[in-house]
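Feature request, filed as a ticket because there's no other form

It would be nice if the structure record came with a short human-readable summary line next to the tokens. Right now we just get the raw output. Example of a typical job, pasted below so the devs can see what we mean:
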Amino acid sequence: MSAADKESVEAFKRDVIEPSMTNLVILDFWAEWCGPCKALSPLLEKVAADYAAKGVMLAKVDVDANKAIAAQFRVQSIPTVYAVFQGQLVADLTPARTEAQLTKALDQILKQLPVQGEAQSLEAEIEPLITMGEEVLGAGDAERAAGIFAQIVEMAPGNPAAISGHARALVAAGRIDEAEATLEGAPDDPAIERARSALTLARDAKPVEDLSGLAAEVAAHPDDHEKRFALAGGLMAAGDRDAAADHLLHIVAADRDWNDGAARAQLLKLFDVVGVMDPWVSAQRRRLSAILFT
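Raw output as currently delivered:
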């Protein structure tokens, strides 16, 4: 092997093999005289840039200057495009000549390989912080939870779970306008919808100055659904979800269509806020189903 070939191999190890230990490398074999190569190059560069956060990078190999490398990969015509991971050729991307074809191929590859891009690394970093924020919020320390989630949002501005946690903590702290601002422009995601439900519920569930007095009125007039609904809202605002659910279920049992099904709708919002996987929600759903289907 000539000195030039040795230098070429060393450069290939440095620029392709070593990065491929953690990244998916798009390996583009090309030549200066190759028209189709020049036409394909901007597409490869764009897609590699779009997928950089997912751990994808582009490496270009001039076949004229790197004959030994081209021979090792048995390149017979150009452009030839391969995907390399952990030093191994994992896919032939040569047939992918459009952005849609290339991104589809990359998506399939990334599902099968443990590629660790910036996005995945960041997600792994913030996951325990999100768990901490949820635990603090669940324990009732809304202001502290809001601070934790605010820091996470700074680290990962577009993360739906972080945005949702921040908004729900702000709602729990009574900072409704700030919560609304936090959710403006947020992406469509189940976590975001949960936060929107919390915001809507907070606006609907009006605090009641004299809860005990209103409770006495409801006890004296059990069929006054409007007063009972207001009591449920006051209880939710006070953080007593058990009693609030009891009163809403009472209304559904007595007249499920009252006020266009307002009691059931309010219950569903409450379920969204607490979280559909929460055992409390499962228990309340069973109570609701027993009423609706008997």
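Something like this underneath would help us a lot:
The chain has a mean pLDDT of 91.
The first strand starts at residue 24 and ends at 30.
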